[in-house]
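pasting DUF6968 domain-containing protein for the record, 158 residues
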Amino acid sequence: MRPLIASRRYKWTDQPGWITARLFTPFRSGSSYKCQFSIQGIGRSKIEGYAKGTDSFQAVMMAFEGLRVFLLPIADKVTFDGILGSDISRPIPSSYGPEKEAHFIALIERELDRMLRSHGEDPKPMQARDRERLLARREELLELRKEKKPSRKTKPHH
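structre below
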C-alpha cells in the first residue's frame, strides 16, 4: 500500500460508528498514473479502488471522484464536521473546452444566486467582493510571471 496523503472520518447519523475514507500517493502505471483510495466502516470489508489519470494530479482528482461516488448512496446517513453528506464536490467538466466549462460554471452560479435570494440574501455584494479578490490575485500572479527569469526547459513534476 502506498503512503497515505489524506483521510477523513464520517460519523453515522443513525447508529454508532465511523466511516474512514483514505487517499494514497499516486504512482506511475505504464503511460498513466493511478491513485488508490479506500473506505472502511460500511460493513465488515474495506472498499478499495484505483483511479487513473494522465498525470498524478488527475489521478488524485479522479480518486476524489471515486470516493464521492462510493459515498453518494449513503450521503444522507453520514456527517462530516457536523454537516450532512460527504462534502466531496462533483467536479465541473472541463474536457468539453473552455466555453462549455464557463457555461457549466454560470449555471451553478445562477442556481446559487437563486438559492441565496430565496433565503433573503443578496448575492451581489458577495459577487463584487469575489470579483475584486480574483482580479487582485490575477494581477499578483501576472506580476510574478514577469519576475520569473528565463531558464532552461525543465521536465514537469508529476
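The mean pLDDT is 89.
The two ends are 19 Å apart (CA to CA).
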